[in-house]
Design goal:
The chain has about 200 residues and is mostly helical. The chain folds into two domains: about 55 residues; about 130 residues, Tetracycline Repressor, domain 2. The chain contains nine helices and no strands. About 25% of the residues are buried. The C terminus is likely disordered.
Length: about 200
């Protein structure tokens, strides 16, 4: 279905309105009536822009939220070329998830559309993109001889993703970022230690 510029703007407004609701303290299971009230749209409009109904809309919102996971870490995630840059990225991650607190819009969405075709692909694409950007940062540090070139950059990047996700889950349960900070700090320290304390920039 080809949409006009106005139609695309309306569709995006529905996605962003639903996303904002999921970031609030209100959500449980979101219904189409909730979405209509939140976004000021009729049932006909919702099905015009999302013929697959609620599941199609929530998948679109999940893709939007997945993009936000990456964009909220920028410009630091895309510029991991010095130890100072890694520290800035670390601080951005901690600040983002502290601000998010127990609410995780993407997690809430995945709970609601978990069995829907496409849901697993949204999560997998996010993790692959995120891991790839961390891997690129490690490779950049290896090129500068700041990280051991023999280190498996992809495996190290995977460890960052697993550690961050685990720390975020604990933060959601406890409200404390201690575990998240600890795992990211230790992984960065491990990278630095691979070059026997090579000087940072």
């Amino acid at each position: 279905m080809a949409l006009t510029a106005k139609g695309l703007a309306t569709r995006q407004r529905i996605i962003e309105g639903t996303s904002a609701h999921l970031r609030s303290d209100v959500p449980g299971t979101v219904t189409l009536d909730d979405i209509r009230a939140i976004t000021g749209t009729s049932k006909g409009q919702l099905f015009h822009y999302f013929p697959g109904g609620k599941e199609e809309l929530l998948l679109a919102v999940a893709r939007f939220e997945a993009d936000r996971v990456i964009s909220d870490q920028q410009p630091h995630l895309g510029a991991l070329t010095s130890w100072a840059a890694w520290t800035r990225w670390r601080n951005a991650i901690v600040a983002r998830y502290r601000a998010q607190g127990p609410s995780c819009p993407l997690g809430t969405l995945m709970d609601q559309v978990g069995a829907t075709p496409g849901a697993a692909e949204v999560a997998a694409a996010l993790l692959a993109r995120w891991q790839g950007m961390i891997r690129a940062g490690i490779a950049a540090m290896q090129a500068e001889d700041l990280v051991d070139p023999a280190l498996d950059a992809d495996r190290a990047a995977a460890a960052f993703i697993a550690g961050i996700q685990g720390g975020v889950q604990i933060l959601r349960s406890t409200g404390e970022s201690t575990h998240l900070e600890a795992v990211v700090d230790l992984l960065i320290e491990h990278l630095r230690a691979t070059r026997d304390g090579a000087g940072g920039r």
